[in-house]
Design brief:
It is built from five helices and eight strands, in the order H-H-E-E-E-E-E-E-H-E-E-H-H. Helix 1 crosses helix 2. The longest helix is centred in the last third of the chain and has 29 residues.
Length: 159
């Protein structure tokens, strides 16, 4: 990514909850370790069960999160992700298979933070890495709370 990041790019990142504890200079340091990817409609970012080695931040466009129920050949869109949302946070923490397939619904621009770049920020800029790690942890915790709440809505009461 260009070392002379525009104010618009820095402002974009500062609007993402993972970066909310950082100042503009700290955001620039992390952003300098990212790459940019553009997807065309229908193009796959990654498949369910692929090994995760990066997380993404959606700068433009929409992406569908797709699961295939066991024993079927049908794809079900479980949610649609938009500008300012992130995908793949778990993969920078541990290298486990992806939990869903991600496909572009429309032309989409993504900022990619690889697991190696994440680790580099943690090693070279520990004060920033701690803020980044805390942001990822809070996001994952919030996602787990939402999932638990939705699951409870579908469960029958235990008698």
């Amino acid at each position: 990514m260009d070392p002379n990041l525009s104010k618009a790019i820095v402002d974009f990142f500062m609007g993402i909850p993972i970066f909310s504890r950082m100042n503009a200079e700290e955001v620039k340091i992390v952003a300098k370790h990212m790459t940019v990817v553009e997807l065309q409609p229908g193009e796959t970012l990654f498949e369910e069960f692929d090994r995760g080695r990066f997380m993404c931040f959606i700068a433009h466009g929409t992406l569908d999160v797709i699961k295939q129920p066991a024993g079927t050949n049908r794809d079900i869109v479980i949610t649609t992700m938009r500008r300012g949302q992130s995908i793949g946070e778990m993969s920078v923490i541990e290298n486990l298979p992806r939990s869903a397939t991600i496909k572009a619904r429309e032309v989409s621009k993504l900022f990619i933070l690889s697991q190696a770049a994440f680790d580099l920020v943690l090693a070279k800029h520990s004060h920033i890495g701690i803020k980044l790690l805390k942001g990822v942890t809070i996001l994952l915790s919030n996602n787990l709370r939402k999932t638990s709440s939705r699951l409870a809505d579908y469960m029958l009461p235990i008698s």
